[in-house]
Design brief:
Structural class: alpha/beta
Strand content: 15-25%
Largest sheet: 5 strands, mixed
């Protein structure tokens, strides 16, 4: 088998084009000409020994081989950049206190902390999984240096709590997987005229407020069937068929599902901004680097798959 050494610079152009949704924009972003980036992509296909792109309307989309290479390219770039950061920030030391929403605990947190710990082993991180109100309170009192929390764009937020916008995440109705398979009607099994059973966090909760207000506007009767203090408890109650909830798809267990039109629940739901909060007094190289890793990690799930 012929050994191929992919060029990191070429892989970066490839990935950047997918992230920006256009290789013309990628060329501008990378400070290259469009023809130079096109030549890089041609070289990449030659190295790969197969087509990476296919026609999709007026633009391009990735072939199966292209999708595979994109996954590996991101990993190679992350490792390359991690090595560069480790050398540049080898002397980073101290303590960073980081808070994050429970929803992100199993998906985003290992990726963020793993990258940071490998690159900066002399810096300690104290992590707190908590709900929005607790995270914002601890940021305000300087008990945390950094926190990722939901923003409440449905009601507005104080300027002091605005934070840095990272992403917009869609809300979804969540129920048992077997609702989709038709084995039972899930939360509707008691009858269409009975109140919809909801599984929600204790108030105050952004998702709780949006869920009840959305159902009220749609004229759908509801009742609180289960109140949970933890995300694990919420998932367990839904899995048991005790009701449905309103969350995002982040960290959604495989035995639960997003409910669509078959649920007869309101389809028009708001999105929630995900914000990065920093204690104003805490600005140093360690918190700056951790913030950068958070931005990079959160950009990947939202990447467009088609390019112009």
């Amino acid at each position: 088998m012929r050994l191929v050494n992919f060029d990191i610079d070429v892989l970066r152009s490839f990935v950047t084009g997918m992230e920006l949704g256009s290789y013309a924009r990628a060329a501008e972003h990378l400070g290259r000409s469009t023809s130079a980036v096109s030549a890089q992509l041609k070289k990449l296909e030659e190295q790969a020994g197969t087509d990476l792109f296919r026609k999709a309307g007026r633009g391009l989309a990735l072939t199966e081989a292209g999708e595979t290479l994109l996954t590996y390219a991101r990993r190679l770039l992350a490792l390359n950049d991690e090595a560069v950061s480790a050398l540049a920030g080898a002397d980073l030391a101290g303590l960073v206190r980081f808070g994050v929403q429970e929803d992100l605990g199993e998906t985003l947190l290992p990726q963020i902390l793993g990258r940071f710990a490998r690159a900066h082993p002399r810096t300690r991180i104290e992590t707190r999984l908590a709900r929005n109100a607790d995270l914002l309170k601890r940021i305000a009192s300087a008990e945390l240096d950094l926190a990722i929390a939901w923003g409440d764009q449905t009601r507005g937020a104080p300027a002091a709590m605005a934070g840095e916008h990272l992403a917009d995440i869609a809300m979804r109705w969540i129920g048992p997987q077997d609702v989709l398979s038709g084995q039972r009607s899930g939360a509707r099994q008691a009858g269409p005229d009975e109140p919809l059973p909801l599984v929600l966090f204790e108030a105050p909760c952004l998702f709780r407020s949006v869920a009840t207000e959305t159902l009220d506007r749609a004229g759908i009767a509801w009742r609180i069937a289960v109140t949970s203090t933890s995300l694990a408890g919420l998932w367990a109650a839904i899995s048991s068929g005790l009701g449905v909830t309103l969350r995002t798809e982040i960290g959604l267990p495989g035995h639960l599902a997003v409910l669509g039109e078959e649920s007869r629940l309101p389809a028009r739901l708001p999105t929630l901004p995900l914000l990065l909060h920093r204690t104003q007094a805490q600005h140093n190289a360690a918190t700056d680097r951790l913030s950068e890793i958070m931005r990079e990690s959160l950009s990947q799930p939202l990447l467009p798959k088609r390019v112009a």
